[in-house]
Amino acid sequence: xxxxxxTAAGPCFEPRAASxxxxxxxxxATSGPRFQLRRIIALALSLAxxxxxxxxxxxxxxxxxxxxxxxxxxxxxxxxxxxxQSPPARADIKHFFAWxxxxxxxxxxxxxxxxxxxxxxxxxxxxxxxEIGAIRASLNRMSERGVAPLTSLALQxxxxxxxxxxxxxxxxxxxxxxxFLRAPSxxxxxxxxERAIDRYEMLYGSLxxxxxxQLKAGLQQSVWDPQRTxxxxxxxxxxxxxxxxxxxxxxxxxxxxxxxxxxxxDAVNALRSWSQQLQNSPSPGYPAYSAALVKDxxxxxxxxxxxxxxxxxQHAVGVLKGYEGDLRALVAxx
Length: 334
Prior knowledge:
With about 325 residues, the chain is mainly α. About 45% of the residues are buried. The protein contains 14 helices and no strands. Mean pLDDT is about 80; it is low at about 5-55. It has one domain (about 25-334).
């Protein structure tokens, strides 16, 4: 029964760059502005905002219903749509969320019901890690659903738009460096601890001093390396731009005269391969480092959960039940 990170569809282990608690280290490596399938069309982004950052159930449902518009404006800020690109982008996003509401939300609701049972008992690190597999499978389904429309968009991007994306990436890199590389180590630790406490308390309610110290110790012992993370971010960003340019060179002329507007299969496969590298980095040693972060997260979450009181666990059950109800209500709206 994972804690809330504000990234994946519903509560999950996948961490955000803004979180950086012991359960939130891993996705720092994959966050920041980029042409990421899981971030561009993302439920990971929009549902997180709906379910985790907004407290009230009605607000969460409203946010999910507005997620197509939110996703469009996020993506527009990243690539700066032309007038011709805007309508098909809106349509693709709308279709994605229609599929997601019907195909994925019922699965999340079922898992939230299961987590309510897990929340009432001690768990092992292995149990915690098992939940990551299910969440990752959902992310893979979303990536696969989005790869074709995103390939179509990639084939239409102009050199000016690619330059705009690169500048956007540079700003994200600068922000990451400011937050995680330049600040004094003591300040970075306190910032990460504060964020971790905030997110755990969304699930369990108030943490006691012993639990806060346990979180701090976990952060101090974490294998997370911000310099390594930044290098991987920049590699992925560069590879993304290179992949788009190669796809355009090979396929943009044929795509321009394709009346169906379906992207060439080879172009789709190229974007798919790039996306798959987000979970399976070709950087030497990085897969082992990523696996160590996940193992760290599972161990630390299980330890924190097992330290919770009956009252804290009941609080978690109530939170999970509320989110389950939200998801079922959203499915019923269709």
